[in-house]
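cache lookup: miss for this entity combination. No prior model stored, computing from scratch. Input as submitted by user K.M.:
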Amino acid sequence: MIRTALCEAFGIDYPIFAFTPSEHVAAEVSKAGGLGVLGCVRFNDADELDRTLTWMDENTDGKPYGVDVVMPMKVPTEGTSTDLSAYIPDEHTEWVDKALLSMGVPPLPEGEGREGVLGWLHSTARSHVDIALQHRPVLIANALGTPPKDVIDKAHEHGIKVAALAGAPKHAVSHVSNGVDIIVAQGYEAGGHTGEIASMVLQPDIVDAVGPDVPVLGAGGIGSGRQIAASLALGAQGVWTGSIWLGTSEYRNLNTHAGWESAFTRATSADTRRMRIYTGKPARLLKSKWTDAWEAEGSPVPLPMPLQNLLVSDAHNRINAAGDPDVVAMPVGQIVGRMNEVRPVAEVMADLIAEFEATVKRLDAIAEG
Amino acid sequence: MIRTALCEAFGIDYPIFAFTPSEHVAAEVSKAGGLGVLGCVRFNDADELDRTLTWMDENTDGKPYGVDVVMPMKVPTEGTSTDLSAYIPDEHTEWVDKALLSMGVPPLPEGEGREGVLGWLHSTARSHVDIALQHRPVLIANALGTPPKDVIDKAHEHGIKVAALAGAPKHAVSHVSNGVDIIVAQGYEAGGHTGEIASMVLQPDIVDAVGPDVPVLGAGGIGSGRQIAASLALGAQGVWTGSIWLGTSEYRNLNTHAGWESAFTRATSADTRRMRIYTGKPARLLKSKWTDAWEAEGSPVPLPMPLQNLLVSDAHNRINAAGDPDVVAMPVGQIVGRMNEVRPVAEVMADLIAEFEATVKRLDAIAEG
């Protein structure tokens, strides 16, 4: 058993929160007693998100689920991808194309994959929230800073809790004073956007900074029951996991990259890089020829958010279509070293829980001498 | 109680290993039931180390203690500091002097503090080992790579265990195959030399890589009982601590820096930098005007080990003599955010143990639902 106050608050069996862009993974986590949290950033089309959340409503056996949007506190330059692409220097576009060709990644067939990922835009994230409110999420998480006050208020009116990621205690305190209910303390080892303070230090620092009334989820480096026990030992009331679900059989429905499974099963915990190349802000990615190219001499300086993601989104599509395990553009945490085989979500969940229980028994023996 | 197999192996009550350059801190930790480990790198004079270890023999109530030497696997260029200084470019020396003057750090009085820290030289570290063998340490730790085979053999002949730091699983495996008994898994958040993999991921990875017969000490980010519980949850059999002891009243005997206490009590976990400026290899330091200067435009590229430490050792002496809390050159981990007051070693030890026990009780309640 893993039971904290969050279980009752959300109607879940285990305080294991699973961030994933796959509705199939999210649904399976919720059905297995955790809380699946669907990442919305990939949905450019409002109707597609609406249909996907309807699918979630119908395929989770009535279990709760959450959604994750990306809403920067500072609203970046808005516009359609066509407008914004005017701000991308030609040299950047040319360098990306040349780099891809030198890695053997061909262009896409004419007319495919030219649209950027609009989920990084503030207006798109707002429409994600509006659509989510027409469904039954129990949690709206914001992966980037404090959500705007009116979004928090609207969520609360619908009885929905709001979570926000923090990479430093001062950000956590600011989230709470703006009305955020739950802090995701995301350490340096995490995949995707992440700060400089590592989980062992960050998690108890944030727990102490926000006080006992604000639940904290430990994030960054959580992929086993031992790590859940460590995070709860540090004072978290639950864990926020992401990378490990990229290694599940249900994730295959997204079909992101044919070479992805070979790439992550062979990777060690040393094989990630924290760089600005994915979105313009520091985010941890799997090391590959793609990250190497951006580290090589003569590579351009990444553009600010949201331009960098527009610059590379076509490249991501090309890389995914090529399916070469040596050329991968995938956010993943240092936990990737522990992802050595593809397994069903239910099996991963069962292992997390069993290892947590065994770990607490082991600690008991140490404490009893 | 905190009792693992290491307690019996070393004759200690708690598997809390305390690295410290202060014999006063080391002795107090050992007397409080942990294992004080004296850092030898500061001893240029063999007789001074000999006298200090005699003091340890006589002031630890017969309790065990350890020593820590710095012995790089690849022997760097040898020589006296006078020889080696020929390899230091004048531009570097001039930049350091100019930077210090601009921060208000005056030169030392004529004839003082001109000698570099020779403990970073391989030959000096070997003489440290020879002297230690004439005393009664139970552990020789090497803070930099696998110690040479003959040093390991000599230690074993004297019944002394050998520990080595590792920042990645492959280094830990290599240490063990060379005869090292205990691995110190030192995560990204640690003070001093540290790699890229953070403790939450590194510790279980190393535990799994070396197998159940090799004890692992969790290092990096350990400064509270919650963090000890987290580290043991991850599979470590004990913890290796360093930074927290810089904040003890016994450390004042070293009188390293009059402004140091003001500097660390106000620092948060965000106020460290991992840079090559201390020794030539990446090491985490307290952020200060000194680290800022090395990050500013126009600053030189740090020299390779052991030249960088020779370059800056005079600067360190000047900084320590000046005692300005804004200008500090001190290795410290991200745990510095938790060091908010100066306390006696015995009190810190008692708190670590009590918080560990309370944490295990809290985890029990979570596991029992």
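stored under new cache key. Chain A touches chain B through 52 residues (CB under 8 Å).
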